From TrEMBL:
Keywords: Cell inner membrane, Cell membrane, Hydrolase, Magnesium, Membrane, Metal-binding. It is found in: Cell inner membrane. It comes from the Bacteria. Belongs to the inositol monophosphatase superfamily. CysQ family. GO terms for cellular component: plasma membrane. It comes from Ruegeria pomeroyi. It catalyses: adenosine 3',5'-bisphosphate + H2O = AMP + phosphate. NCBIfam families: bisphos_cysQ. The keyword Thylakoid does not apply. This is 3'(2'),5'-bisphosphate nucleotidase CysQ. InterPro entries: CysQ (IPR006240), CysQ/Inositol_MonoPase (IPR050725), Inositol_monophosphatase-like (IPR000760), Inositol_monophosphatase_CS (IPR020550). PROSITE patterns: IMP_2. Mg(2+) 1 binds at E68, D85, L87, D88, D217. Substrate binds at E68, L87, D88, G89, T90, D217.
Length: 265
């Protein structure tokens, strides 16, 4: 598999999954179940997962696939793998807030190197090109032919007036305490992996996450942010956030533009 082969496939699958998700989102009602970890899952999560998984396995049968909705995949490990969160921000979906995303990423040797983040309710799509740089696609989002692509780049942050984005559903006192260490011009809340993309486009400078996440929640957004010149580090020691960890669980982390002077936890 080459990057040139990968990118059109994950882009198309994200768009197709977005259509499936929106058809359920726009229905009068949809089913919600509770998983063993007490997190919600909807028929949209499951339908999008089935579509993406089938597409990736057909296109790249020799590459390990890890996906949130298939527990059997969570015990598999490898240096190179595709990792999927078919619907990140399920709570935003259930509450019809629109801040949910489709996420597909490639991880190589512990680093997310390519990925796509698609927010179907917002009509925003971000992904890495084959060369590793990141773009936002605008226009009709045709499944076969990409529209206009705008290169995205992190902002040159003003440490005296930072723009901060934090979780909408998981914003707690620990998060507020950490944000309070900075000189903040504006602070906003957003759901799902969109927060990585807001840093990638320069709409925010800093995204601290003091709470539980899994690798499928973050890999695609991480790849997009890295392709835009941003960084993601562990909250405790500011070392790079790596992937392929035991159980695919993340420590707390900070996503940021490199011009931000990070504060200690």
């Amino acid at each position: 598999m080459t990057y040139e082969e990968l990118i059109p496939v994950i882009r198309r699958l994200a768009l197709e999954a977005g259509d499936v998700i929106m058809s359920i989102y726009n229905a009068d009602d949809f089913g919600v179940k509770v998983k063993s970890d007490s997190s919600p899952v909807t028929e949209a999560d499951e339908a999008a997962d089935a579509l993406i998984s089938a597409g990736l396995r057909a296109a790249f049968p020799d590459i390990l696939l890890v996906t949130e909705e298939q527990a059997a995949s969570h015990s598999q490990t490898g240096d190179t793998f595709l990792i999927v969160d078919p619907l990140d921000g399920t709570k935003e979906f259930i509450n019809r807030r629109g801040d949910f995303t489709v996420n597909i990423a490639l991880v190589e040797n512990g680093t997310p190197t390519r990925g796509v983040v698609y927010a179907p309710a917002k009509g925003r799509m971000f992904y890495t090109l084959a060369d590793g740089s990141s773009v936002e696609e605008t226009g009709g989002l045709d499944k076969e032919t990409p529209g206009d692509l705008s290169p995205i780049r992190v902002a040159e942050a003003d440490n005296a007036a930072l723009l901060v984005v934090a979780s909408k559903s998981h914003r707690d006192q620990a998060t507020e305490d950490y944000i309070g260490k900075y000189a903040v011009k504006d602070s906003k809340s957003a759901g799902s992996s969109l927060k990585f993309c807001l840093v990638a486009t320069g709409e925010a400078d800093l995204y601290p996450r003091v709470g539980r996440t899994m690798e499928w929640d973050t890999a695609a957004g991480h790849a997009v942010l890295a392709g835009a010149g941003g960084k993601v580090v562990r909250f405790d020691n500011h070392q790079p956030l790596t992937y392929g960890k035991d159980g695919y669980a993340n420590p707390f982390f900070i996503a940021y533009a490199p011009s931000v002077t990070l504060k200690e936890a």
